[in-house]
Amino acid sequence: MEKIEEGHFPPKKAESEAASVQVETDNPAKKLARQLDFTGGVPGQALTVSLQEHANQIIQPEPQLQQHILLMPMQQAPVLPPQPLIRPLSMQSSSEAKDGTPKKPKQCNCKHSRCLKLYCECFASGIFCDGCNCANCHNNVENEASRQEAVEATLERNPNAFRPKIASSPHGTREEREEAGDGLVLPKHNKGCHCKKSGCLKKYCECFQANILCSENCRCMDCKNFEGNEERQAHFHGDHANNMAYLQQTANVAITGAIGSSGYGSPPVNKNRKIQELFSGSMIKDPVHRLGQFQQENQIKASVPPSLLSSIPGTRVSNAAALGPPKLNYRSLLADIIQNHDIKELCSVLIVYAQEAAKILSDEKDASLKQAKHHRKASYPSSGVGKVLRDDCSTGIQAESIMVDDSRLDGADVSAERPISPGTLALMCDEQDTTFTAAAAPPNDLTSLSNNTSSQLPHGQGRAEIYPELESIVLAQTRDCLKKLITLGEIKEKKCSLMVRDTDSGRQNNVSSNGIVNTVPPPPPPQQKVDSGTTAANTTRPKVHPPDGK
DNA sequence: GAGTTTGAAACT
DNA sequence: CAGTTTCAAACTC
């Protein structure tokens, strides 16, 4: 639902009627207010966002047009609003070349409307006809009176008649903004389209024409103008202009610091479609299925290594092309930095360090405990041990683990345990499942490592004490790795920023599937590669590779 | 370029 | 508000 901001947009009906009485006679203030309607925006309205994100939709007023607007009877205000003019949808698309270069303004061909109805694109956009092919045109200075009446009548019918149809709206609801994605503002048609036969993939559709996705405002049937639709992707396939706009848009997001996840757009949830789906159950109309399809695509994008993704035929072009300028499919700048094998490597390192730390710490604890045991020369109940250990622990989870450990202290199944907290254990188990077992030749066999670790802790004593220290070490390692990733991401961000500027200046760049310059990642800092033999206790040095060349 | 299709706008 | 008509752009041939 569109909300009209009071004070910005006058023509509620009563006001419109009141204004119509005095039209052309007095009250220039009201004229000024109405004039703003024609300019297609509201001062202060975040059209600049649209300007940035959809530069192909919004054109700076051409001198000729500006002059016409200045001449408009409704726009004899002393100062023109500063924001750019938004031309009607069809004129936007047809008055620009694919590369965004403004062409000659489109001329209407009206025959029966006298160019005094919204059928006329010139009238709808608030400009005089000039050089048009229209017949019996009244949208000119000579017919100012009749034109003014038409304007009033139009505004009476629809106070927003001269507002831009496409809103990228920070003024929208919070839900809409969240729906659009984190920090991104996706434009949508204020009223939505009502297409029935075009599938919203032809210029008949105002959404398609404006190069935006259909939204929940639309009441179209059999809509294919949603993210992830193959037919829609086919329409954009090979559209260089779209790719470039997408490239810049992606870069814009990156530059604004959106390093992270989930900038993906979401498919429109069309009310009408929902209704349709209740009766049809058609796969293509099913938002759940479509959402699933879309999510699946994104999951593929997210899970497949970028190198693989870009190598998949069709993936590269269709993704970028399908998105088009207004539709941003955001990929992290780290996507090309963090490779799958890096993740595995990182996990391996963490595990190895965990084991190494466990070994060191457990040796110390083991020795001291043995010494204590020896002095006492008496067996004490396991609860007593638990109590002692609990005194050293701070978390309930750890205490719980201790009890489990205690119950097994005298058991023979010590080898099955690892001196790691449950959370770490779970992570390692996951890694065992997903990383190492999946690898054809795992660099680190977790099973053997686990056994080794177990053997390093023959008695399982003192495990509780080493948990905090152990996790501290592991976390420190993780932190260092993340720091490096951040650094790499920042480097790439800078490169991306430079690339955008270079793109504007016409420099040819090799662009990857995510619209980011496909440059060789910056060489890792010298300290990234760590020599072997580093001890786990040495947390100050960043480590990527495990010790001993693993 | 003529004819057809399409969907927004206008009208009832 | 829904259905119908009018209209002009988009599209096809």
TrEMBL record:
Superkingdom, taxonomy of origin: Eukaryota
Region named Disordered: 1-23, 81-108, 162-181, 441-461, 502-550
UniProt entry keywords in alphabetical sequence: Nucleus
Compositional bias annotation for Low complexity: 446-455
One Pfam family, short name: TCR
Localization, UniProt: Nucleus
Biased composition (Basic and acidic residues): 1-16
Domain (CRC): residue spans on this chain: 104-228
Annotated Polar residues bias: 506-517, 529-541
Family: Belongs to the lin-54 family.
Name assigned to this protein: Protein tesmin/TSO1-like CXC 5 isoform X2
